[in-house]
Amino acid sequence: MAKGELKKRLSLVDLSLLGIGSMIGSGWLYAALNSSGYAGGNTGWAWILGAVIVLLIGLVSAELSAAIPRAGGFVRYPNYSHGNVVGFVIGVSSLLAYTSTAGVEVEAVRQYALYWWPALGHSDGSPTTLGFGVQIGLLVIFFLLNYWSVSVFGRINTIITFFKFIVPIVTIITLFLYFNASNLHVPPAPPGGAHGVFTSLTGAGIVFAYLGFRQAVDFASEAKNPQRNVPIAIFIAIAVSFIVYIALQYAFMGAVPSDVLSAHGWEGLKAIYQSPYADLARSLGLMWLINLILVDAVISPAGTGNIYLASAARILFALARNGHLWKSAGQVDEKSGVPRGALWLALVLSIAWTLPSEFQVWGGLIGAVTSATVFTYMPAAVSLAAFRNHLPELSRPFRLPLAGFLSPLSFVASTLLIYWSGWTVNEILIPIFILAWLGYALLGKKNPDHRQDLACSWWLLAYYVAMLILSKLGTFGGLERLSSPIDMVLVAVVALICYYWGVKTSIAKPVIVEE
User: I need a surface site. Which of 61, 155, 351, 503 has the fewest CB within 10 A?
Assistant: First the structure.
């Protein structure tokens, strides 16, 4: 494989549609029903809160990616600001988050395709052997679309994304014709209220639905004029997706037949609406809408899965450039401008994520995927403050306003999302990250800067340990030894302590590798 460079071929439209295209995927097909079960009529607040939190994270990312455009930037920035221990651990969380998302999306494709091809799944919705084969086949197709060149990938995504807008808009308009405002007053299952709103952010896939803003950051090295276009693309992607999602949420809730809702409640709808919008259209007698939704239910997640497989390759490429993977994964094919070694590895890992039983249904580990992704974003705020302190002369085409306030607020918001994911998610993920920290701290001693890297990383270990304890004792799937809102206040306090600790112990002279 030739040691080429990534090609700068993606325009502002391409970057924006990468973000929007990855957001309008499986999230719109399932999140409205799931969030209704948690929060009922209050679920609109969850979409608003989710958009605000993701926008905060996006604003931090916009400054970093405009100043230092790098493929897989979320992995590169912590390595620049805090060294190899932090960079490696964040790389592990990125590896989990990105490679799993493509698997989640092909699962959504298969699950909706059951309407046409029942042999793809069992009665409980889990895949048959044929279903697994179809999921793997889709990932191989995505691989081939990405393999030839970034230009081909960008053009295909643009076409798919424009189509993906049509069906949600038609669905919104049609369902609002059946809108019944009294549905919004039907309460969800306990505990509901604010607890339900917070839980739905991760458990229902709301934040998962917004996370596509990151594509502009991941593809920054392949963007034309990234200093200008990356921040704008982040804003456009979040704003457009919020409008579509909030309209879909209320269109869905208002159109559910009142007799069905009174018989089953919001939580009970999950048992009879396994393919929410298609099943709702059927209960309304809208056969034409069922077919339209089913076509889009295959195309939308497939388009998103295609994007995430490409993004996973960029993350693996970034890990290799950080020195945490073998060198071939950090090389670019001269002719195509694609990191083909990383793309091969992304394919293998994405296929692996479709095989465990937890991923046999779309919602199986959606909270874990969301939380793993937020763990990837969380250190960006610390890196921003570190670069402000140590690299004041760095050119910043986009400069985050009120960074002294918004940067720590972004870190606190990310930490709350992780806490709201609940103990069942955190007991799986956080020990993995602690082991990754310990493993690199013990085995990375050959690095000449190891002592410095270790000194710059203690805050992250303390953060993981504290979050594990608080999650265990808290009210989101924990032992409830800490009452609400005391638990969330403690989470915010821990987040602020670790944030300022991380900023204080960052590398005094960051070395940003030119590419």
Answer: 155
Cβ distance 83 to 449 under 8 Å? yes
Query: Above 50 in pLDDT, residue 2?
Result: no
Structure tokens at 286: 């809208």
Task: Give the three-class secondary structure for 20.
Answer: helix
**pLDDT of res. 183:** 94
Burial class (CB in 10 A: 0-12, 13-18, 19+), 508: exposed
Residues 6+ apart with CB under 8 A from 409: 56
**How many whole angstroms separate alpha carbon 245 and alpha carbon 321?**
36
Taking residues 410-420, what's their average pLDDT?
94
- The DSSP secondary structure of 234-266, one letter per residue, reads HHHHHHHHHHHHHHHHHHHHHHS-HHHHHHHHH
Q: Report the 10 Å Cβ neighbour count for 431.
A: 12
Amino acid at 192: G
Q: Give the pair of three-digit tokens for residue 122.
A: 């069992």
- Mapped onto helix, strand or coil, the DSSP state of residue 332 is strand
SS3 91: helix
Distance (Å, rounded) from C-alpha 168 to C-alpha 239? 16
- At 330 the pLDDT is 73
% of the chain residues with pLDDT over 70: 92
Q: In DSSP terms, which residues pair with 332 in a beta bridge?
A: 4
User: 119 — phi, psi (to 5°)?
Assistant: -65, -10
The pair of three-digit structure tokens given for residue 476, joined into one six-digit string: 């989101």
User: 73 — alpha (psi -120 to 50), left (phi > 0) or beta?
Assistant: alpha
Lowest mean pLDDT among 61-70, 120-129, 248-257: 120-129
Read out DSSP for 120-168? GB-TTS-B-HHHHHHHHHHHHHHHHHHHH-HHHHHHHHHHHHHHHHHHH
For 388, residues 6+ apart whose C-beta sits below 8 A from its C-beta are 403
pTM confidence score? 0.82
